[in-house]
Amino acid sequence: MNQHRALQRRKFVAAALGSAVLGSAWGSTYPDKPIKIVLPVSPGSAIDATARRLAPVLEGPLGQPLVIDNRPGSAGLIATSQLVRSPADGYTLAIVASTHCITPHLYKASFHPVQDVQPVVALTSGPMIFVVHASVPAKDIQQFVSYARSRPEKESVPMGNSGNGTPLHIASALMSLKAGFTALHVPYKGIGAFSTDLAGGQVLAGFLPLVAAAALIKAGQIRALGISTLKRLPALPDVPTLAESGIPDFEVDGWLALIAPKGTPLAIVQRLNGEFNNALRTPELERFVADSGGAVIGGTAKDCESLFQRDFAGYGRLIAEAGIKAD
C-alpha cells in the first residue's frame, strides 16, 4: 500500500514539474481566453458536481475561467462528438466517464474512444455498491446468488440500472454472468428514477454509487451486500468486495477523465495535465472525492490513454460474452 502511494505521489510530482517547465514557453500564449469544459450529463449529476468543484480551483493557476457546457444525450455521444469536432487548441475540453469506453460497443459512434481523442488525465475512480431491497432474503452475496438461482426463469430477479450501457448495467450483467444466475435487467433514465424504484421494491437489486445509496441504506430501505472494486470502501468498512465474496476477479470501476481533441499540442496537454494533477491534490478536492466514496487517480496523459485502451478492450469482451444490447 505504501509503495502504491509513493508511486502515485511520484506521478503527481512528475506531472507538476512538466507543467512548470512548459509553463515558461506557453504561459504568455495559453490560455488567453476562457476554456470550455463539455460534459455528457445534465446539471446536478456526479460528473457535473466534480467539474464544478474543479473549475474554481483551476482558474487561478490557469489565469482563465473554465466554462461548463452541459450536453447530455445519446449515452454521451453528443458531448464527445462535439469535442472531437472542436479545434485542437486547448480551449474545448471534455470530462467523460467510463461509459466513454462502453457506449461505442453498443451504439453507432462517429469516433473511436481512444484513437480519435487526446487523453489528458484520469481524474477520479468511484466504486459501486451492490444493494438489495430490504425484502430480499439475503444478508450477503452468496445468499443473494442462491436466492437468484432459486427463482424460476420466468420470474428472474429484477435488477435495475441507470440506463443501458452504463457502468451500473455492466456491473449487473457481469455479476449475473460470473455468478451463474439469470436476471431481468431493468434500465431507467438515470440514477434518481432507479434508486426511487429500488427503495420502493419495484426492482429488487442493482448497483449504486455511494452518494445515491447512503441515505437509503441508513433508512433501512435497501441493504448493502458488496463493493464492485477490489478494495473495500472506508465509508462502509464492513461491506466486503464481490471478489472476496465468492465472485473471483470481479471489478467494475466508474472513473472520470479529461480529454481534448486529437492533435492538441503536446505542450498544452502537459500543461493541462500538470494543473489538473495539482488541483486533484488540494485538500478540498480530495475531501470532496472521498466524501463521494471515490478516490483521486491523476497521473500522466499516457496513464490515461492506457486506462482507455484497457477498458475499451475489456468492456468489448464483456459486452460480447454477456450478449448486452443497446435496447
Automatic annotation (TrEMBL):
Top-level taxon of the source organism: Bacteria
Pfam families named in the record: TctC
UniProt-listed SUPFAM superfamilies: Periplasmic binding protein-like II (SSF53850)
InterPro entries noted in UniProt: BUG, Bug_dom1
Protein family according to the UniProt entry: Belongs to the UPF0065 (bug) family.
UniProt protein name: Tripartite tricarboxylate transporter substrate binding protein
Naturally occurring in which organism (per UniProt): Variovorax beijingensis
